[in-house]
Design brief:
Layout lengths: L2 E2 L5 E2 L2 H10 L3 H15 L1 H4 L3 H23 L7 H12 L4 H24 L6 H49 L3 H6 L15 E7 L3 H10 L4 E6 L2 E7 L9 H19 L3 E4 L9 H13 L7 E4 L4 H8 L1 H16 L4 H13 L5 H8 L3 H15 L6 H15 L4
Parallel strand pairs: 6-7
Antiparallel strand pairs: 1-2, 3-5, 3-6, 4-5
């Protein structure tokens, strides 16, 4: 019986060892037969170019010589060359079933040659030949297992390497390290994006990559994402308006599609940059997307652009200064006993579309005279007129600054 070792190696019986030693003189001819059979039976190997075909032929001979040498010396047959070959074929994109088929052909040819030689041995019994046959099957089983394991390990490694490359490229773009992007050979295709813009940058809190990607794909939009501790940052390809009948409308509709998809998939706040055309502008776009996100109060869920609330975006851009201004301007209101009612009424009035006290009264469930009285009180406390645009702008910025205050 063949001896199976813990490391997967198989030691062949004495008869097979003798036959293997005899076949070492025929390795070249066996390798030629094997190469012809593989290229005749397996389509991916038949399509190999001249250089790769020569590599396969060379491996066939080296592997056969290695296997026969181990057998001849009655040492556990090592699978090192098999592992090297499988890694190489996986990186070349040859399918697993084709690689397995090639190894099975090789062991079939080797087994036939060994058994034929065993039958020629004068002292060989039927039991010896049976044991020799079982040993070749054990070698085939061990090789097949090695091929499967190594091929899959290699694919996992390649996938991880590809993902790492994508993350490095995205990091280079989103941090403005254009020299690193060039050094890494960055292309839009390597990120799964079209070579030409327009693009949008998106920042989303507490969101999942797969959910976001799938939401965009359902709208026919390609994207590339970089997970971050607080969520995601990504680049989305917007439909190219260059070939459209109405380019401006196509660009606007594309941006609207991104906004809708992101809003549906985001688990928290999300911000979108304006449209841009060159990937190397992504770092600037990221800053604008982050600013758009910051224009939403913490804890809400939704996606916005800078156009959603320009004043809030300006406040977010200089939030520390805006907050100091807010505290100074609204301090008399915040110190009043009825500050909650006053701030609620002021906020509702600033956010209303018409400024109608009747509409605001309906929202706040109070009389419209109450709304007027509260607004007059805010005006007296702050010294700001609700009829003067500059004063209204200052109050709006102050209210927004307080709303955007963390916690």
């Amino acid at each position: 019986m063949p001896e199976q070792h813990a490391d997967g190696g198989v030691t062949v019986p004495p008869l097979l060892s003798v036959c293997a030693a005899d076949l070492l003189d025929r390795v070249g001819a066996l390798a030629d037969d094997l190469f012809r059979t593989i290229t005749a039976e397996i389509a991916p190997y038949a399509r190999l170019g001249t250089e790769l075909a020569a590599e396969v032929r060379d491996f066939n001979e080296r592997n056969l010589r290695e296997q026969l040498t181990f057998m001849a010396r009655r040492r556990p047959v090592c699978m090192d060359s098999t592992r090297q070959c499988v890694r190489r074929r996986a990186t070349q994109g040859i399918p697993l079933d084709a690689v397995l088929h090639a190894f099975r052909i090789g062991f079939r040819l080797l087994a036939n040659a060994l058994i034929e030689r065993a039958k020629e041995q004068p002292a060989a019994t039927m039991d010896d030949i049976a044991q020799a046959s079982m040993a070749t099957w054990s070698l085939l089983d061990a090789a097949s297992q090695t091929v499967n394991d190594v091929y899959r390990e290699t694919l996992v490694g390649l996938a991880r390497a590809d993902e790492l490359q994508r993350l490095l490229l995205l990091d280079a773009l989103l941090t403005g390290k254009n020299a690193d992007w060039a050094m890494l050979g960055g292309t839009a295709a390597s990120l799964g994006l079209p070579e030409q813009g327009p693009y949008l940058c998106v920042v989303a809190e507490h969101s999942d990559v797969t959910t976001m990607e799938q939401a965009l794909l359902r709208s026919g939009l390609r994207s590339a994402w970089r997970p971050r501790p607080d969520g995601l940052a990504g680049i989305v390809a917007v439909p190219d308006p260059a070939h459209a009948v109405h380019p401006a409308r196509t660009r606007a509709n594309g941006a609207a599609s991104v906004l809708e998809a992101v809003a549906g998939a985001a688990a928290g706040r999300a911000g979108l940059s304006p449209v841009y055309t060159r990937l190397r502008e992504s770092a600037d776009a990221l800053r604008l997307a982050t600013l758009a996100l910051s224009s939403l109060p913490a804890g809400v869920r939704g996606a916005v652009t800078l156009d959603h609330d320009p004043a809030a975006a300006l406040v977010a851009a200089g939030h520390e200064l805006a907050l100091r201004m807010a505290v100074t301007l609204l301090d008399p209101v915040l110190a009043a006993p009825d500050r909650k009612d006053l701030m609620e009424t002021l906020t509702a009035w600033l956010e209303s579309g018409s400024g109608s006290t009747s509409e605001i009264a309906e929202v706040l469930y109070c009389h419209r005279n109450t709304v007027r009285n509260r607004l007059d009180r805010v005006s007296r406390l702050t010294g700001r007129s609700l009829l003067r645009p500059a004063d209204v702008a200052a109050l709006y910025a102050a209210v927004r600054a307080l709303a955007l205050r963390p916690g």
